[in-house]
Specification:
It is a single chain. The protein is α/β, with parallel strands linked by helices. It is 45% helix and 20% strand. It has helices at 12-24, 35-44, 61-69, 85-97, 109-120, and strands at residues 4-8, 28-32, 49-53, 76-81, 101-104. The chain has a 5-stranded parallel sheet with strand order 2-1-3-4-5, with helices on both faces.
């Protein structure tokens, strides 16, 4: 296994597409449709990387990033958000809150895979 990833997005189609692609790359991927469930899954079994949408119900991605960044060994975090100037502002906030990298939507699937490989390759145990 190349690494453990938690994917948080309230768009079921996008979440499924990203999950399938990352699993095909050899990653262990778990998914959640909102921030509360995502944090619950993370605390049950921490991961190497969290990929989170910024705008979600229950608890948004900015709050998830803030909580995870405050943990003793925070995971790497990719924050993603839809187009438009307002959403780009959310990505700036995500970086300020502790996101390792940000990715504006829409993006090419290969760009996300490359970013995941790049980030996970920085971990000592990773073979991404």
């Amino acid at each position: 296994m190349k690494g453990r990833i938690l994917l948080l997005d309230d768009d079921p189609e996008l979440c499924s597409t990203l999950c399938v692609r990352l699993v095909m790359e050899g990653y262990d991927v778990r998914t959640a449709s909102d921030g509360r469930l995502g944090l619950k899954l993370y605390h049950e079994s921490p991961v190497d990387l969290v990929i989170t949408d910024v705008l979600m119900p229950e608890m948004d991605g900015l709050e998830v990033i803030r909580v995870l960044a405050g943990t003793p060994s925070p995971p790497l975090i990719i924050a993603m958000s839809g187009g438009g100037d307002r959403d780009l502002g959310f990505l700036v906030e995500a970086a300020e809150f502790g996101a390792t990298r940000t990715l504006p939507k829409p993006f090419l699937l290969e760009d996300l895979v490359s970013l995941v490989k790049e980030l996970l390759s920085t971990l000592p145990h990773s073979s991404a």
